[in-house]
Amino acid sequence: MSLRTSLKKVLPSISVTEQEALDAGDVWLEGSIYQGKPDFDALRAVPEAKLSDEEQAFLDGPVAQLLDMIDETEIQSSNHLPDNILEFIKSNRFFSLIIPKQYGGLEFSPYANSTIVATIATKSTAVAVTVMVPNSLGPGELLMHYGTEEQRQHYLPKLAIGQDIPCFALTSPEAGSDAGGIPDQGIVTMGEYQGKQVLGLELTWDKRYITLAPIATVLGLAVKVKDPQGLLGGEEDLGITCALIPKDHPGVELGNRHNPMGIKFYNGTTRGQSVFVPMEFIIGGQKNIGRGWQMLVSCLGAGRGISLPALGCSTAHVALKSASEYAAVREQFGLSIGLFEGIQEKLADIAGKTYLQEAMRVLTTEGLGLGLKPSVVTAIAKYHMTELGRDVLNSAMDIQAGKAIQCGPQNTLAQGYLGQPVAITVEGANILTRNLMIFGQGVMRCHPHLQSMVESIHSNEKNADATFRGLLTKTIGYSVGNSLSAFTKGLLPFTAGAKSKLSEVRQYEKAVNKLSAKLAVYADFSLLVLGGKLKQAELLSARLGDVMSYLYAAMASIRYYEQKVSAEDRAQAAPYFHYATRWAIAQAENAISDFLANFPSGATRKFMRLITVTYSESSMRINDDLVRELAHQCQLNTKFKKQLTHLVHASNGDGHDINQQAYLAKLECLDMLAKIKKSLRKKEIKAGVRFAETLDNALVANVITADEYKMLVDYNVKRELAIRVDEFDFDMNLLKPEQAKLKQVS
């Protein structure tokens, strides 16, 4: 019995849905990371993402106007998005960000799409989700890539101006993460359409979690098509197929709503029982029957790589701006809370991870801007950026404490806190994305020979044995090369090269090269020892996926620092960069440590440690000095901090505006506040019960001038407003601060 025959019995073949998923995506930077040779030349050669004049004008115009219109408290206390918001979105073509100009769309870049969605999300998750869905996985994108020209001409202009509102129905009660297992069916049959007997599909479906379904006018639908009568002359099971059906088509049910976390975007159900549609309703026509899964996976890049990471990144921008300003203004025990090390630890983590979020957002959308559909990279971005969003938001909630849990217009964190689980759950729940998708797809897509080898093992062609032997020889050579590279870099660290022109970057570039070389070895041995069982060994494979993910994050951090940070801003940006890159590298090392500690074969584990010289952790860790430095830096009003919070727009009178006014007023008064504190220590003036009394005493004692007194009083008014929380009367009617004070007095 040949080796190929033996392996055929133990190695599972690639299923049709798996093969379609593998064929649909592109391999990008993650391929070089997996293979042990991170391609920093390719990284640095990626064209820089910039907004065009038209894209910037859209942000400065319609997006800014939309932000000023949004009253999140009103939205959350209502059942629907306000009509004026929805009409503004439609009339200003927010639904056409990805639609080509020839069909009336805006045709913006992935970077611009991400920036627009993220900017809106800082103000309202509900509005951001409403905007992002038509510009993500849905009828618009499917039509652009796979529709007939007649379908594009009919639908895209209407979608562009909001005349038609789309939704796409994939998830059913019986199949969530296992989208390939959907029970919804389409039976090939003859039926009546427009008074004629035509060939078509009889559809039966029951879908849930469908965003925009309650207000959609056109339904995208995924079903499994069968041809039991052989009307198409082929197999009975034809596979997943995507159709596009007008809402008013007989038998289509739309309207029932879910209530996702109380966030008032439209999400609900759609059902149909024995609904006949003609073949012309299939996206791309009859020839695309059975191609639905390939179409869907190919188009997932926007949702996974743009929209959902944008939600995570927007949360980080809000958390950094809100927490740093609050920490600078809020005082306890006579000190700003931002001076306490417990708060500094949280602040530094928010700041470093916000930098990493922005770096990953920019790099991922730059890759998509190249026309690539890197399925593994977009899965990395979706999982890690939404999880990082949750991390930084939790830290910001901890810092603001009581202020963060009181709902109302002044709370800048609550709507993001409620909305973050949405980003974590949709487009592949994060547990699935981490444990099955990132490394599961990565190992097949990124290994130079594995997919071809598995195909040759299960091949029935005459020359299959020869093909297998050739691929096996190449694979052995590849693995030996990986082992030698990892051993050399582990034993002689200086051999891990670095090409950066910046000395502070080179240490991290070398670290990425060394860890990537180790990853290649561990992946090879996992495949050798575990074989087909690696697919079920989710804990192990997820850790290898984590290594690849965090090295991608570290490369994004390096690229952002080299390209997006000007020379004069490097001193401001350095603490953010060092924290983010060290954190990513440390996480990769932790994943390696956990992988080795839990590898089932003791002998293999010892050999992997030996060959990669992995016996201790790197010293490249985040220390307390870096925490203190970054916490201090992020409380300053620097140009670089503004760059990392640029998504947040403070509208007149909203929570961000109130916090920002108090923060900027305090920065103007720092010298005066220092004089007052010095006088208090010397007992030259007496501290009042309230700060306003202390200011009066300082003026009388000539510690401050009349002009300084005026500035300090102005600051104190803004400070008091910033540290207040919203109050409501007994019937939960919102009170203005003046009304609340009057009620207290009475």
UniProtKB/TrEMBL annotation:
<protein>
    <recommendedName>
        <fullName>Acyl-coenzyme A dehydrogenase</fullName>
        <ecNumber>1.3.8.7</ecNumber>
        <ecNumber>1.3.8.8</ecNumber>
    </recommendedName>
</protein>
<feature type="domain" description="Acyl-CoA oxidase/dehydrogenase middle">
    <location>
        <begin position="167"/>
        <end position="267"/>
    </location>
</feature>
<keyword id="KW-0274">FAD</keyword>
<feature type="domain" description="Acyl-CoA dehydrogenase/oxidase N-terminal">
    <location>
        <begin position="72"/>
        <end position="162"/>
    </location>
</feature>
<dbReference type="Pfam" id="PF00441">
    <property type="entry name" value="Acyl-CoA_dh_1"/>
</dbReference>
<feature type="domain" description="Acyl-CoA dehydrogenase/oxidase C-terminal">
    <location>
        <begin position="290"/>
        <end position="435"/>
    </location>
</feature>
<dbReference type="InterPro" id="IPR046373">
    <property type="entry name" value="Acyl-CoA_Oxase/DH_mid-dom_sf"/>
</dbReference>
<dbReference type="Pfam" id="PF02771">
    <property type="entry name" value="Acyl-CoA_dh_N"/>
</dbReference>
<dbReference type="InterPro" id="IPR013786">
    <property type="entry name" value="AcylCoA_DH/ox_N"/>
</dbReference>
<comment type="pathway">
    <text>Lipid metabolism; fatty acid beta-oxidation.</text>
</comment>
<dbReference type="InterPro" id="IPR009100">
    <property type="entry name" value="AcylCoA_DH/oxidase_NM_dom_sf"/>
</dbReference>
<dbReference type="InterPro" id="IPR015396">
    <property type="entry name" value="FadE_C"/>
</dbReference>
<keyword id="KW-0560">Oxidoreductase</keyword>
<dbReference type="Pfam" id="PF02770">
    <property type="entry name" value="Acyl-CoA_dh_M"/>
</dbReference>
<dbReference type="InterPro" id="IPR037069">
    <property type="entry name" value="AcylCoA_DH/ox_N_sf"/>
</dbReference>
<keyword id="KW-0285">Flavoprotein</keyword>
<dbReference type="InterPro" id="IPR050741">
    <property type="entry name" value="Acyl-CoA_dehydrogenase"/>
</dbReference>
<dbReference type="InterPro" id="IPR006091">
    <property type="entry name" value="Acyl-CoA_Oxase/DH_mid-dom"/>
</dbReference>
<comment type="similarity">
    <text>Belongs to the acyl-CoA dehydrogenase family.</text>
</comment>
<dbReference type="Pfam" id="PF09317">
    <property type="entry name" value="ACDH_C"/>
</dbReference>
<feature type="domain" description="Acyl-CoA dehydrogenase C-terminal bacterial-type">
    <location>
        <begin position="444"/>
        <end position="728"/>
    </location>
</feature>
<dbReference type="InterPro" id="IPR009075">
    <property type="entry name" value="AcylCo_DH/oxidase_C"/>
</dbReference>
<dbReference type="InterPro" id="IPR036250">
    <property type="entry name" value="AcylCo_DH-like_C"/>
</dbReference>
